[in-house]
Amino acid sequence: MRIIRAKDYKDMSRKAANIISAQVILKPDSVLGLATGSSPIGTYEQLVKWYEKGDLDFADVTTVNLDEYYGMKPENDQSYHYFMHDHFFDHVNIDPSRINLPNGMEPDEKKECARYDAVLRSVGDVDIQLLGIGRNGHIGFNEFFSKGTHCVDLTESTIEANKRFFASEDEVPRRAYSMGIHTIMTAKKVLVVASGEDKAWAIRESCFGPVTPKVPGSILQLHNDAIVIADEAALSLCGDFL
Ligand code: F6R
Fold it and tell me: Could you report the per-residue pLDDT of 137-157, keeping only the tens digit for each?
């Protein structure tokens, strides 16, 4: 696991965007695994800027997203479909037929998980998987170790963390479809972005604690090309280890 120290959120975002850019330049038909949430927004903004300058071309890129809320319509502005279009897809020349996310509107969990796993198999290996990390150490919406796509009951701590995006806690979805840990681990490269003091515990435990399903991000210690870009605040509990 390689840990890259960033000064702050902006620096973290530029560093992550640089790594994704290099991937797309070296392999224009890359498969990018993408995440939502606050952590990668700056990375997407930077990639969009470089695209607008003519430095990047996403025409041949395929994307697979980590997760989507169960029962959430794609046009709902809290959905991860909406998020991805708003922050990234609508601003670059990505082919809409190469964009893949779980379908939150499919009520049949078994069917949707099987469909999304088939999509993941069909696109081939993910070249680089971008990840945020939950305060409790979750990656994707994996609150434990899991294999393939599954429908997960979000923990209280995740519901609490996500309520900032909703008008009230009652509106926060309780369930989500998520790519499995095993699938995440098959990505050729994994890139975690973490910023802020509220991620410090998750970063310390994921990078230096025991590998345990209680901290799903800790599994990344076993990945042979995992990069963590964290700012000073997110690294603030790692002092003894760095
Ligand atoms: C999002 C995802 C989640 C988030 C995590 C951190 O697609 O899979 O694991 O990355 O909850 O969220 P933020 O970045 O909002 O702190």
Answer: 999 999 899 999 999 999 898
Question: CB atoms < 10 A from the CB of 90, how many?
Answer: 11
Mean pLDDT of 221-235: 98
Cα distance between residue 40 and residue 51, in whole Å? 16
Q: Is the CB of 102 under 6 A from ligand 1?
A: no
Please check whether residue 49 is in contact with residue 90, taking contact to mean a CB–CB distance below 8 angstroms. no
Q: Full-prediction pTM beyond 0.85?
A: yes
Nearest CA to ligand 1 atom 10: 132
Using the CB atoms, write b or e for 62-82: b if 16+ within 10 Å.
bbbbbbbbbebeeeeebbbbb
Q: Determine the Cα–Cα distance for residues 84 and 89; give it in Å rounded to an integer.
A: 6
Whole-angstrom Cα distance, residue 10 to residue 167?
A: 27
162 pLDDT higher than 90? no
Ligand 1 atom closest to 196 (CA): 16
The residue to mutate among 34, 133, 175, 191, having the most atoms of ligand 1 within 8 angstroms of its beta carbon, is: 133
* pLDDT band at residue 161 under the 50/70/90 scheme: confident
Nearest CA to ligand 1 atom 15: 37
Ligand 1 atom closest to the Cα of residue 34 is: 7
d(CA 179, CA 18): 25
Residue 168, pLDDT score: 87
Question: Which residue of the set 127, 138, 162, 231 is catalytic?
Answer: 138
